[in-house]
Amino acid sequence: MTHRTTQHTEKNLLGRVALVTGGSRGIGAATALRLAREGADVAVTYVNGKEAAGDVVRAVEALGRRAVAVRADAGDPEDAAGAVTVAARELGGLDVLVNNAGVGLLGPVETLTPADVDRVLAVNVRGVFLTSRAAVAVMPRGGRIITVGTCMTQRVPGPGGTLYAMSKSALVGLTKALARELGERGITANIVHPGPVDTDMNPADGPYAPGQAAMTALGRFGTAQEVAETIAHLAGASYVTGAEFSVDGGHAA
Ligand SMILES: NC(=O)c1ccc[n+]([C@@H]2O[C@H](COP(=O)([O-])OP(=O)(O)OC[C@H]3O[C@@H](n4cnc5c(N)ncnc54)[C@H](OP(=O)(O)O)[C@@H]3O)[C@@H](O)[C@H]2O)c1
């Protein structure tokens, strides 16, 4: 039997500008490249990964698109909004926002300190709110907001996830409320819930990996590219809003 693979080359996003937060590595970097392949110019934010963000910029440019890297800590209120200002100024507007930057702090509930709670909520929740708020101020009709949640908003398979699951669950409410508020402006908001995905945050050869893979129906980790595929689809979709998408190998099944 012959198996054929097809490379998706349709330029659905030609002429559009996207901002991907946390775009220097992992799911964010794969998303930046995927959006560029579909024709978008792309801004990425990073905190420590200046060199990696530069590599993403060069890879986007090699695809014939414009790109810019912006150092912006999603946990800092000024940076969270400022990333939108820089992206729109450098690339000429903003059509697609991918709220991808996030931190995963796991541990028994009694070990998580008030400072841990503040930091995780600042990056995973307040940052997403403030970046989205800044984005909708400049987005034209047809704008798209895609937020990265987690499969743990749907099913928490074991202990240690209180803070992370709580923070990401807030993004479901934000997404639905944004969809209702922005619908009349033709702007959509959706959320993608990855399952275990092989990145620096959650390596497929890490100590907890076998247990996570076993929780999925497909019995394996996903790749950053497999998540990016759904994000890119939503960047081009016109009649989908307020919706949650599991890209989790069946973790929630
Ligand atoms: N991997 C998984 O299994 C999994 C599963 C479900 C959901 N997710 C979610 O998917 C998203 C991406 O995760 P990933 O696995 O790709 O992580 P990753 O490989 O650790 O990459 C994280 C990216 O976010 C950036 N970042 C971290 N903190 C930031 C901050 N405060 N402000 C701005 N950027 C920041 C990092 O930039 P620097 O390079 O500068 O550090 C990097 O580009 C996160 O929201 C995560 O919660 C991941």
UniProtKB/TrEMBL annotation:
InterPro entries: KR_dom, NAD(P)-bd_dom_sf, SDR_fam. It comes from the Bacteria. GO terms for molecular function: oxidoreductase activity, acting on the CH-OH group of donors, NAD or NADP as acceptor. CDD domains: SDR_c. Keywords: Oxidoreductase. Residues 16-238 form the Ketoreductase domain. Gene3D superfamilies: NAD(P)-binding Rossmann-like Domain. Belongs to the short-chain dehydrogenases/reductases (SDR) family. This is 3-oxoacyl-ACP reductase. It comes from Streptomyces pilosus. The lineage of its organism: Bacteria, Bacillati, Actinomycetota, Actinomycetes, Kitasatosporales.
